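WARN no homologs supplied; continuing
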Amino acid sequence: MALDETDLRLLAALQENAMMTAQDLSERLHLSASQAGRRRQRLETEGYIRGYRAEVDPERVGLGVQAFIQIVMATHTETNAKDFVRLTKRQSEIVGAWTLTGEADYLLRIYCADLTALNALVQNVLLPHPAVSRVQSQIVMERIKSDAPLPV
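OK structure emitted
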């Protein structure tokens, strides 16, 4: 089903604040609360909304270092790729992982308590993996823009 302008405004509103009630949405979208609630439920059911989560302050929970790590694979076999993907899913410090075009094969987003923990992850987990040829880390100095809502 195609999204109309009201659906797009509803998605934009929920990206700003996922805790908006049907009443809040109704006021924002100029609909009744029941209409807003039904639209939200339909967008959830149809998979436009994949879920909800709280945005936690990493420093407040002891995660003072954020880094992006590029991984270059030594060999490109299906087994190596599957094994490396399993590794990324097992490591809680890896909060995001993408496959890439270009020089690197993977980009990992990492949160660690400190540089010692980041070094341990690189030296004891990533570099020893048999599929990994090269690891290049970039430590985030300052986050100037948070993950923004999608431009719907």
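The mean pLDDT is 95.
OK
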